[in-house]
């Protein structure tokens, strides 16, 4: 069953890659950029290196691996260019794109009106909702966290949602998921999102 699921996921990612690549080519504003990428023979893709299962460093190979990397590899292959991964986190993924240090972001990112004003989005390939990770002994009611210390990753919609939903809580922002998890394990926060 798991092998079938992984195979199905990879097929879906490949199909989405082709769709995404054709979407880039179809947009006049990106036509020059696509030509530049093909001429250079490399596409620079910003992706997470500390956000499994989307992107994390494999301890054996020391390479970034994950769903987003699979997607980026399929995209590069469909364009006929080499892939250069640029490690990023939520707070710096858009600045990397805007500065030209990356050609694309392939790192789970929520589409918001504010972000849509500064970057273009492809067709979504992952959908989720706001979730909390808490110790097993934590309260069951969400409202009991209204004045808690809650960890979030900097620059995410999760961080923004915490400030709106729990204005009395103390939101502690971390650079990545592993740092937030460490804070939760150490008791520095009562929940993370």
Automatic annotation (TrEMBL):
One GO BP annotation of this record: amino acid transport
Signal peptide from the UniProt entry: 1-31
Domain Solute-binding protein family 3/N-terminal: 42-193
A Pfam family it matches: SBP_bac_3
Superkingdom of source: Bacteria
Keywords assigned by UniProt, alphabetized: Signal, Transport
InterPro entries found in the cross-reference section: Bact_solute-bind_prot3 (IPR051455), SBP_3_CS (IPR018313), Solute-binding_3/MltF_N (IPR001638)
GO CC annotations on file: extracellular region; outer membrane-bounded periplasmic space
Membership in a protein family: Belongs to the bacterial solute-binding protein 3 family.
The protein's name in its UniProt record: ABC transporter substrate-binding protein
Organism name: Citrobacter koseri
Taxonomic lineage from the root: Bacteria, Pseudomonadati, Pseudomonadota, Gammaproteobacteria, Enterobacterales
């Amino acid at each position: 069953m798991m092998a079938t699921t992984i195979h199905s996921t990879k097929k879906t990612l490949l199909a989405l890659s082709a769709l995404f690549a054709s979407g880039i080519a179809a947009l006049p504003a990106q036509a020059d950029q696509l030509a530049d990428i093909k001429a250079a023979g490399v596409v620079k893709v910003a992706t997470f290196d500390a956000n499994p299962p989307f992107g994390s460093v494999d301890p054996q190979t020391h390479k970034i691996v994950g769903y987003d990397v699979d997607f980026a590899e399929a995209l590069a292959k469909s364009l006929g260019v080499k892939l250069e991964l640029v490690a990023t986190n939520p707070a710096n993924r858009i600045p990397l794109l805007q500065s030209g240090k990356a050609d694309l972001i392939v790192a789970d990112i929520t589409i918001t009106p504010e972000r849509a004003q500064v970057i273009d989005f492809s067709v979504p390939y992952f959908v989720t909702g706001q979730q909390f990770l808490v110790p097993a002994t934590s309260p069951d009611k969400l409202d009991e966290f209204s004045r808690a210390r809650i960890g979030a990753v900097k620059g995410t919609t999760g961080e923004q949602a915490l400030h709106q939903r729990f204005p009395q809580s103390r939101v502690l922002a971390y650079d990545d998921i592993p740092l937030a998890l460490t804070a939760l394990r150490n008791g520095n926060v009562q929940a993370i999102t």
